[in-house]
What does this fold into?
Amino acid sequence: MPDLILFDINMPRGNGQNLCGAIRLFFDGPLIVISALKTERDKVLAFDVGADDYLVKPFGMQELLARIRVLLRRFGRKPANIVETPDLCINLEARLVTVRGRRVNLGPKEFEVFKVLVLARGKPVSSQNLLRVVWGQNRKNAESVRTVVHELRRKIELQSSKPIYISTESRVGYRFILPE
It folds into this structure.
């Protein structure tokens, strides 16, 4: 189930108000409608069929992000870019990582590798994919990835020799795991 749904009510086929009402049948989270329609009647209709917010185009990205944060707070949901466990807090947008309440300073490559692993949440990421995404065009070798993962474990894991967050998948790559 998504944390939030954002959609344009002006649809090439179909009726955006009908879609909004249909979404409400299965989704009780925040729903933001964007539209070029700016009359009060259009806005009221969207609210009446289930929208929580209505944003008229054109709009600024910062305003949209602020409205998303407000609705996620109001609905008691954490943004997807914040991951927390009892010992670890990762804020991908602010580029902040804390372990047991203390900030951990990650280098640029360390943070980018960690970000890719966190966003994949539970899915294995190959060294080749990490090389392509973080370094670009496979300019480095797999040893670069191993070195960065080693440093990440040293900084993030409670015991780097017994990692619980970043596991190595033999012949596959690495996986970020949220302990239960």
Summary: The chain has two domains: 5-74, 82-176.
